[in-house]
Amino acid sequence: LHMGKTMKEDLTVVAKYINKLYPPEFNVFSIYAELYHNYFASQAKKNAESHLEDKDIYLLLSWVHNFYPKEMRKDHTLAMELDKVKLGSLLPSSLSKELENKYLDSEEVTVKNSLSRCLDKEIQRWKEDKEPEKLNGHFQSELLGIFVIQSIYSSQKRAEDISKAVGEELSRRLLKELPAFLRSYRDAFEDFKEKSKKHRYYKPILIANINNCWNFR
């Protein structure tokens, strides 16, 4: 953040004041911009090649695809000058792709495990001597219906915030995880229906799960 802010502020000063003090053939702005970019890119590459936690990979990819190419161009003066220089990406495409795959693999596993834990909690609640919660006057499982959908949606949104391509790839992967989760949910529910007919709240639990189907659709 400090490096990006410094680069943006300094280049704005160069574009507004220093550039006009030199003849055009000196390409003063281009020289400053390339030197800043090369240093920034070297630091990004150094970080990318070190051991990164998942949240660090996400942040670095956000800089590569989003913050650096877009935020730097919000200032009108800076945008015009940077368009002439064509600085390129902070990371080589191969390294960027490697980080994207790590992020996608990690996010896919995270969502899969989250859905699995959610279903386990729901099954446990079926076994308790408690009536299901009501939403808008109807039996429903807030944990299952709402949490699952929000988990998938928020994961897709985070990926799209990196880039459209990363968002599309994660969506493709999660579209495989959701049916797998729903099959597990169906199997568990069928098992409950068969084995728990004497449960005190058998009927309300059935209604709550049937009402969940609308949300999943």
From TrEMBL:
InterPro entries: EXOC3/Sec6
MF-aspect GO terms: SNARE binding
Single GO BP term: exocytosis
Cellular component aspect of the GO annotation: exocyst
Pfam families xref list: Sec6 (PF06046)
Transmembrane segments: none
Protein's UniProt name: TNAP2 protein
Originating species: Cettia cetti
Organismal lineage: Eukaryota, Metazoa, Chordata, Craniata, Vertebrata
Gene from which the chain derives: Tnfaip2
